[in-house]
């Protein structure tokens, strides 16, 4: 498989390579047998900042040819099932989360795992509670302290980002408990080929790729007598199962003998698992047609309590490079061991964002940073407070403004060309409500598909984790949204933030990709307009710094020097200079109470300010 650092995105998925990332690779598409259940591609959490930086510094090329391309190159088109970026997906009220905790038989744990398991009720606190204090446990006592917050739960993260509109709930009164797997880590994460047909995995079992589907299936079967799956079903199918596995995640180190956190479907994991083991997809291996194999698998491995269980996300029970994996050598080094650290909110909340229909907004090809640390759906899931490794992900940033609008959590204050000059005061987003936290300005003539969003980000609430970027990382954040590209994610399987563009002219011949529907993409679907104009996110320099924020005295205009508000679609005559969108944000002032006041207007109203 092609893994560019973090197994994230189509190029990093078990079933994904460049050919699956929205590119047409054959003039003769293969006609796929119709089925209610599509084979699709995994969504992986991004690599930790430490891992990404280490790989960059080492010059380690961690990509490799994706064997799934052999199938993709036949022309079959794979969609991202369950992601809707044409119509917004309003999410509010009680949101059920079915959580399963998976442990291995004693003595057969993943390499480097701590002795025993964290008591199950701590994960209930982490996901559903308002207080989470793993630091009272002996294993984690050394990480506790007066400055260490104990309110950084997934529940609180979703409540803060949704302005109180989302409440994560269980539908059972049963006690939270670990479910023992029928096989050990030596099977599911086997790196030697001991459990492969013929003693060798034809295409590898890195991060358990060949056995991930079996792991989830075995867990469902083992938990069947403890869980009533029908309580979570909607129209006969459980929307998602939230799996927590014993051990750490490979996103901390790229250790091949650990699972990498992701969201996927059981059907696809089983289908491609057999492909990695034998070189044949599960249907071909079984000598069946694809529809026959799907029907059999749905009946035998995906039906519990009379309902279908297919979609899942999986994340670790602890954090850190607990085995001491050495990225440079591919071996293990005692000196590189870190942790174990307690599980934190970031990875959990990021993966559940996919469950709600959100895409990754970082560059899944790892040639740039996408929106960096400024969204839960990108590097923001790794923000922390205090700024030390043990807390990575405990204080993730908010979901980005587009995601909030997509989920129905925010209704931006709209500024239109006929509105004159609007002087608006924005509270810090953690203190805002659904109606006063964002400003939206559309590019005239774009039919509402291209627009700018503005928010006030201060180091308070969950955004306190931005201390990782330094104390001066605060101010007005300006976002560019292009729904023409984000919509391609659903219609053509195209990742929205994999084409970086760092030119103020916004016309970049050498940075483009063509989606499977023929659309040429030259820029991100969602981007941060960095105030200093350095384009560090696009140039893969960092995931964010204080220069990205518009602070007192700064301004954004169609002609401002460092970065401007020009359009990606409207050009001056036949030149490569973007036309004047007319969008101005001036007189920016950060107030003592953390709010920001600024003037928002179009150039036609400049004389009225």
UniProtKB/TrEMBL annotation:
Keyword Hydrolase: yes
Biological process, per Gene Ontology: proteolysis
InterPro entries, A to Z: Peptidase_M6-like_domain (IPR008757)
Source species, domain of life: Bacteria
Pfam families linked: Peptidase_M6
Molecular function terms, GO-annotated: metallopeptidase activity
Domain Peptidase M6-like: 340-407
Leader peptide range in chain numbering: 1-21
Alphabetic keyword roster: Hydrolase, Metalloprotease, Protease, Signal
Keyword Signal: yes
NCBIfam families for this protein: M6dom_TIGR03296
PANTHER family: PEPTIDASE M6-LIKE DOMAIN-CONTAINING PROTEIN, SECRETED PROTEIN-RELATED
Listed name of the protein: M6 family metalloprotease domain-containing protein
Source organism per UniProt: Exobacillus caeni
């Amino acid at each position: 498989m092609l893994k560019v650092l973090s197994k994230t995105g189509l190029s990093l998925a078990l079933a994904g390579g460049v050919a699956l990332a929205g590119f047409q690779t054959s003039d003769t598409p293969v006609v796929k047998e119709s089925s209610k259940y599509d084979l699709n591609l995994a969504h992986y959490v991004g690599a930790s900042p430490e891992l990404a930086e280490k790989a960059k510094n080492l010059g380690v090329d961690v990509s490799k040819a994706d064997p799934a391309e052999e199938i993709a190159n036949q022309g079959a088109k794979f969609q991202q099932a369950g992601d809707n970026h044409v119509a917004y997906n309003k999410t509010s009220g009680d949101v059920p989360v079915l959580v399963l905790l998976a442990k291995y038989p004693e003595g057969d744990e993943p390499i480097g795992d701590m002795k025993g398991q964290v008591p199950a009720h701590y994960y209930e606190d982490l996901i559903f509670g308002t207080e989470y204090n793993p630091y009272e446990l002996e294993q984690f006592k050394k990480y506790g302290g007066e400055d260490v917050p104990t309110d950084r739960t997934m529940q609180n993260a979703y409540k803060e980002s949704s302005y109180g509109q989302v409440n994560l709930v269980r539908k059972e009164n049963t006690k939270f408990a670990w479910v023992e797997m029928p096989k050990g880590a030596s099977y599911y994460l086997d790196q030697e080929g001991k459990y492969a047909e013929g003693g060798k995995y034809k295409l590898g079992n890195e991060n358990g790729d060949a056995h991930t589907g079996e792991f989830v299936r075995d867990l469902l079967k083992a938990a069947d007598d403890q869980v009533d799956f029908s309580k979570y079903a909607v129209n006969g199918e459980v929307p998602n199962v939230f799996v927590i596995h014993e051990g750490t995640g490979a996103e901390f180190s790229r250790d091949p003998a650990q699972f990498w956190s992701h969201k996927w479907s059981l059907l696809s994991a089983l289908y491609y698992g057999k492909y990695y083991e034998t070189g044949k997809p599960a249907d071909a291996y079984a000598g069946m047609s694809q529809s026959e194999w799907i029907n059999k698998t749905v009946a035998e491995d995906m039906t519990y309590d009379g309902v279908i269980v297919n979609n899942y996300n999986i994340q670790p029970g602890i954090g850190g490079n607990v085995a001491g994996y050495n990225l440079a050598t591919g071996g293990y080094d005692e000196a590189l061991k870190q942790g174990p650290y307690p599980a934190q909110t970031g990875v959990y909340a990021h993966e559940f964002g996919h469950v709600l229909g959100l895409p990754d907004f970082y560059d899944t090809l790892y040639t740039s940073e996408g929106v960096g640390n400024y969204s839960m759906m990108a590097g923001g899931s790794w923000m922390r407070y205090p700024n030390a490794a043990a807390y990575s992900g405990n204080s993730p940033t908010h979901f980005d403004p587009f995601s909030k609008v997509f989920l129905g959590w925010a209704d931006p204050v709209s500024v239109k060309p006929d509105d004159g000059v609007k002087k608006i005061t924005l509270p810090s987003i953690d203190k805002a409500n659904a109606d006063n936290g964002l400003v939206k300005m559309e590019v005239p003539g774009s039919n509402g598909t291209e627009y700018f969003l503005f928010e006030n980000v201060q180091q308070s609430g969950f955004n306190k984790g931005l201390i990782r970027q330094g104390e001066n990382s605060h101010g007005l954040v300006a976002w560019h949204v292009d729904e023409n590209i984000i919509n391609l994610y659903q219609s053509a399987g195209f990742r929205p933030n994999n084409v970086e563009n760092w030119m103020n002219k916004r016309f970049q011949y050498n940075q483009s990709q063509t989606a499977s529907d023929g659309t040429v993409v030259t820029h991100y679907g969602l981007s941060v307009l960095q105030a200093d104009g350095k384009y560090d996110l696009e140039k893969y320099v960092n995931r964010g710094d204080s220069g990205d924020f518009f602070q007192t005295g700064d301004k954004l205009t169609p002609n401002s020097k460092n970065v401007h508000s020009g359009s990606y679609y409207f050009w001056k005559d036949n030149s490569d200079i973007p036309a004047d969108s007319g969008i101005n944000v001036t007189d920016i002032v950060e107030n003592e109470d953390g709010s920001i006041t600024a003037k928002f207007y179009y150039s036609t109203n400049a004389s009225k300010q």
